[in-house]
Amino acid sequence: MKVRKVLSFPGRPHGEVVVASQCSRIMTAQRKLLVSWLFLGMVPFILQARSYLKLAMPHKITENLLVPPGAERRINNLIELCPMNGCHIGHVWWNVEITHYYSLEHGHLYHYVVPQYNSHGNFLIGSEKMEPFSTAPSGCANYSYPVELYFYHGSIGYYSFYDELVGTYCIIDHIAYTHVAGVGTFDINGLALAEELNGDGYRWSLWYSLVGALFRGLVLRRCYISCKRYGDKCAQMDVSLRRKAATIYVHENMRLAAHGATNYHQMALLYLLLEGLMSDLFLLAATDGAFDWVQHVSLGYNLSGILLMLFEIVENTGWLRESYRLFTKRYAFQLRVVTDRGAP
Hints:
Elements: H1 14-26, H2 29-56, H3 78-81, E1 86-89, E2 92-95, E3 97-104, E4 107-114, E5 119-125, E6 144-154, E7 160-170, E8 175-186, H4 206-236, H5 243-253, H6 263-286, H7 292-317, H8 322-341
Parallel strand pairs: 1-8
Antiparallel strand pairs: 1-2, 3-4, 4-5, 5-6, 6-7, 7-8
């Protein structure tokens, strides 16, 4: 067994030196690195896994909200039949615009859009009165009807976010007060969103489900292997690491773009980070419940990742002076540390 050299200092009890020596043998450099990797790499990944799994799971549109084959699209008396002008989802207001409807056996099925968000979907209002939803004002009592909705929200990539809602529609203020019944993703975007979706099978996004998980897994694996190798070298050279040094090393190896990556690679990674940011923003706007704080933490991680990636792109150009570069890097690193400490 290799014995670590311990220095004794005048005036310091010998017991303190022995305890420090024992602690250094227990918390080796490799273990410090792996503990830092666990808290700085795995904890953010676990917190983000909740939102990832919610959107990656297959979803199925309620049969009542699907347009049957051969149904005739109508626009006559559209405002008189349903003057709904908004929807309240997860404490967020969404204005809607109805484009057409279908007359079916179970009622009128309306197609609507949210123009500023590139969102399309259908909704169906029941014929029997019911108690208003909890977020509806008191004036909607005795004036509320059941409502079911779904919509696809276009993203920056070739897929869309799916949201299914249930609640009540108030005929006094013409607003639907709803809560989220299900979320998901589907490989559809652009003009295809305006087309009616048929079929009652399960849907999911291949791009969102595979690319995001594969990318995050490779980053964690690369950092883990680097920490193991660096810890082995420290053990061979009989060198101890302080906690701060181990944290900085893990931060540098958790960077999404490896050292020497071109700006093209970094722009591709920036796109993936923006997709993650879009996912968090969508879930924050469409989700209400006790786990809202998880979405805020996940949003903070993605924002800090985007900030660091933008800095790496500018750093590689060589436009910054050394003093400005070090100041900006120190500031960005401090923001990342604050974000990490914000996690429970």
